[in-house]
Write a structure and sequence with these properties.
Layout (H helix, E strand, L loop, with lengths): L8 H18 L1 H8 L4
Length: 39
Amino acid sequence: MTVTHPDLAPFREAVKPVLEEWAPTIGEDLVDAAVNYEY
């Protein structure tokens, strides 16, 4: 089995507008937790 680690930068850039739109609704703390999550 080969484990890969995708480059998340393009994904994060693509979802940035969605996060900015939903931050007031779901809370900045939840958005920050999701953005700063490291696996």
